[in-house]
UniProtKB/TrEMBL annotation:
InterPro entries, sorted: CHP02096, NTF2-like_dom_sf, SnoaL-like
Pfam family, one: SnoaL_2
Lineage: Bacteria, Pseudomonadati, Pseudomonadota, Alphaproteobacteria, Rhodobacterales
Sequence ranges assigned to domain SnoaL-like in this UniProt record: 8-119
Protein species of origin: Antarctobacter heliothermus
Top-level lineage group: Bacteria
Signal peptide: none
UniProt name for this protein: SnoaL-like domain-containing protein
Protein backbone atom coordinates (compact mmCIF):
# COMPACT_ATOMS: atom_id res chain seq x y z
CA UNK A 1 0.00 0.00 0.00
CA UNK A 2 1.30 3.44 -0.93
CA UNK A 3 1.19 6.00 1.88
CA UNK A 4 0.52 9.72 1.59
CA UNK A 5 4.16 10.29 2.51
CA UNK A 6 5.25 8.03 -0.38
CA UNK A 7 3.11 9.94 -2.88
CA UNK A 8 4.33 13.34 -1.64
CA UNK A 9 7.96 12.13 -1.67
CA UNK A 10 7.50 10.93 -5.28
CA UNK A 11 5.96 14.31 -6.20
CA UNK A 12 8.96 16.20 -4.76
CA UNK A 13 11.47 13.78 -6.32
CA UNK A 14 9.86 14.44 -9.71
CA UNK A 15 9.99 18.20 -9.03
CA UNK A 16 13.71 18.04 -8.27
CA UNK A 17 14.30 15.95 -11.41
CA UNK A 18 12.46 18.52 -13.55
CA UNK A 19 10.00 15.74 -14.42
CA UNK A 20 6.62 17.41 -14.91
CA UNK A 21 5.08 14.17 -16.18
CA UNK A 22 6.22 12.46 -12.98
CA UNK A 23 4.60 15.20 -10.90
CA UNK A 24 1.37 14.92 -12.91
CA UNK A 25 1.35 11.14 -12.32
CA UNK A 26 1.00 11.86 -8.59
CA UNK A 27 -2.09 14.04 -9.10
CA UNK A 28 -5.80 13.30 -9.49
CA UNK A 29 -7.44 14.44 -12.73
CA UNK A 30 -9.33 17.20 -10.88
CA UNK A 31 -6.48 18.35 -8.63
CA UNK A 32 -6.98 21.79 -7.06
CA UNK A 33 -3.73 23.79 -7.11
CA UNK A 34 -3.70 26.72 -4.68
CA UNK A 35 -0.70 28.90 -5.48
CA UNK A 36 0.82 31.38 -3.03
CA UNK A 37 -0.39 34.40 -5.02
CA UNK A 38 -3.22 34.00 -7.50
CA UNK A 39 -6.24 31.95 -8.38
CA UNK A 40 -6.87 28.27 -7.75
CA UNK A 41 -6.10 26.17 -10.82
CA UNK A 42 -8.19 23.03 -11.28
CA UNK A 43 -7.13 19.94 -13.24
CA UNK A 44 -3.94 18.35 -14.48
CA UNK A 45 -3.85 20.45 -17.66
CA UNK A 46 -3.84 23.70 -15.68
CA UNK A 47 -1.21 22.31 -13.32
CA UNK A 48 0.96 21.22 -16.26
CA UNK A 49 0.67 24.68 -17.86
CA UNK A 50 1.73 26.25 -14.55
CA UNK A 51 4.77 23.92 -14.40
CA UNK A 52 5.72 24.81 -17.99
CA UNK A 53 5.58 28.52 -17.15
CA UNK A 54 7.61 28.04 -13.98
CA UNK A 55 10.26 26.04 -15.85
CA UNK A 56 10.73 28.89 -18.32
CA UNK A 57 11.13 31.54 -15.61
CA UNK A 58 12.80 29.65 -12.74
CA UNK A 59 15.20 26.80 -12.11
CA UNK A 60 14.50 25.41 -8.65
CA UNK A 61 15.57 22.52 -6.48
CA UNK A 62 14.15 21.71 -3.07
CA UNK A 63 16.36 20.75 -0.16
CA UNK A 64 15.80 19.87 3.49
CA UNK A 65 12.40 18.38 2.62
CA UNK A 66 10.47 17.07 5.63
CA UNK A 67 7.12 15.37 4.97
CA UNK A 68 4.43 15.04 7.63
CA UNK A 69 1.46 12.69 7.24
CA UNK A 70 -1.84 12.99 9.09
CA UNK A 71 -3.29 9.92 10.68
CA UNK A 72 -5.37 8.09 8.10
CA UNK A 73 -3.27 9.28 5.14
CA UNK A 74 -5.81 11.70 3.66
CA UNK A 75 -3.62 14.73 4.32
CA UNK A 76 0.07 15.54 4.35
CA UNK A 77 2.33 18.55 4.64
CA UNK A 78 5.94 19.35 3.86
CA UNK A 79 8.43 22.05 4.64
CA UNK A 80 11.53 22.66 2.60
CA UNK A 81 13.99 25.19 1.22
CA UNK A 82 13.62 26.40 -2.38
CA UNK A 83 17.03 26.95 -3.95
CA UNK A 84 16.47 28.77 -7.20
CA UNK A 85 17.67 30.86 -10.08
CA UNK A 86 15.45 33.49 -11.68
CA UNK A 87 15.88 32.83 -15.42
CA UNK A 88 13.30 34.89 -17.32
CA UNK A 89 11.30 37.92 -16.18
CA UNK A 90 7.88 36.89 -14.91
CA UNK A 91 5.00 39.33 -15.52
CA UNK A 92 4.63 41.91 -12.76
CA UNK A 93 7.87 40.88 -11.03
CA UNK A 94 11.41 42.33 -11.03
CA UNK A 95 13.59 41.86 -14.10
CA UNK A 96 15.36 38.49 -14.24
CA UNK A 97 19.13 38.64 -14.45
CA UNK A 98 20.03 35.15 -13.27
CA UNK A 99 19.60 36.06 -9.61
CA UNK A 100 19.74 33.20 -7.11
CA UNK A 101 17.51 32.85 -4.08
CA UNK A 102 17.02 30.60 -1.09
CA UNK A 103 13.52 30.61 0.34
CA UNK A 104 11.77 28.60 3.09
CA UNK A 105 8.43 27.23 1.89
CA UNK A 106 5.72 24.76 2.74
CA UNK A 107 3.01 22.77 1.03
CA UNK A 108 -0.19 21.11 2.18
CA UNK A 109 -1.78 18.16 0.42
CA UNK A 110 -5.08 16.29 0.37
CA UNK A 111 -5.03 12.77 -1.02
CA UNK A 112 -7.58 10.23 -2.14
CA UNK A 113 -7.05 6.84 -3.75
CA UNK A 114 -3.28 7.27 -3.73
CA UNK A 115 -3.42 10.53 -5.70
CA UNK A 116 -2.98 14.15 -4.63
CA UNK A 117 -6.29 16.01 -4.93
CA UNK A 118 -5.15 19.36 -3.51
CA UNK A 119 -1.80 21.16 -3.43
CA UNK A 120 -1.40 24.40 -1.44
CA UNK A 121 1.98 26.15 -1.48
CA UNK A 122 3.13 29.02 0.74
CA UNK A 123 6.30 31.11 0.78
CA UNK A 124 7.21 34.67 1.68
CA UNK A 125 6.90 36.62 -1.58
CA UNK A 126 8.35 39.79 0.04
CA UNK A 127 11.48 37.80 1.01
CA UNK A 128 11.81 36.51 -2.57
CA UNK A 129 11.36 40.03 -3.98
CA UNK A 130 14.11 41.34 -1.70
CA UNK A 131 16.46 38.57 -2.76
CA UNK A 132 16.02 39.11 -6.51
CA UNK A 133 15.75 42.93 -6.53
Amino acid sequence: MTTASDVVAAYFAAFNAGDTAGMLACLSEDVAHHVNEGQVRVGKAAFGAFCDHMSRCYREELSDVVVFEAEGGARAAAEYIVNGTYLKTDAGLPEARGQTYRLPAGSFFSLEGGKITRVVTYYNLADWMTQVS
